[in-house]
Design brief:
The chain has helices spanning about 5-10, 20-30, 40-50, 55-65, 70-80, 100-105, 105-115, 160-175, and strands at about 90-95, 130-135, 145-150, 150-155. By secondary structure, the chain is of the alpha+beta class. Bound molecules: FE2/S2 (inorganic) cluster.
Length: about 180
């Protein structure tokens, strides 16, 4: 019998939608027998697309599907900042805080977003509209300060651009 991670006992695996299960099986089938674990990153993306974040229950279900230990899923999900391990707002603002962006003012942008939304890094605004995260280099080092939201880059940020961006995201979320 497999040893269980303590959290695996505490949080029951959750079910995924039929669509997510179809996608998961499609990706698993791309790998040779016995190598299904290699599908883990793509599967975690499917899970996040369905729920908006990746809960322990969801990770436990992924472990069941791949027939691996839950800890193997936790290790991957916690390594990459792109996976949200807590519920997030409709828009997740991921601000790069690595050296080149820092040199051109990413700290000021992070502080300004914190003030404007009345949250700290890692928190979600009261209206559920925004979550602020900081991340390491996103590969747009010549265009800082920058942030990513929904896989889209927003570059050369200023306070004015941040205001415009937040307004546009509020409008888009209400329409
Ligand atoms: S340092 Fe910010 S994108 Fe590379």
């Amino acid at each position: 019998m497999k040893a269980e991670h303590p959290q695996a006992v505490n949080e029951a695996p959750i079910d995924f939608s039929a669509h997510t299960m179809t996608e998961i099986q499609r990706v698993i089938d791309l790998f040779p027998a016995g190598k299904q674990k290699s599908a883990i990153l793509r599967i975690l993306h499917f899970v996040q697309e369905e729920f908006g974040w990746v809960s322990v229950g969801a990770m436990n279900r992924v472990a069941q599907i791949l027939d691996i230990q839950p800890i193997e899923v936790y290790e991957v999900a916690t390594f990459y900042t792109m996976f949200h391990l807590d519920p997030v707002g409709k828009n997740v603002l991921e601000v790069c805080r690595t050296g080149p962006c820092q040199l051109v003012g990413s700290d000021d942008i992070i502080s300004y977003i914190e003030q404007t939304l009345d949250i700290k890094v890692g928190e979600t605004s009261k209206d559920g509209m925004f979550t602020l995260k900081t991340v390491e280099c996103l590969g747009a080092c010549g265009y800082g300060p920058m942030l990513m939201c929904k896989y889209k880059f927003y570059e050369h940020l200023t306070k004015e651009k941040v205001n415009e961006l937040l307004d546009a995201m509020r409008d888009a979320s209400q329409s």
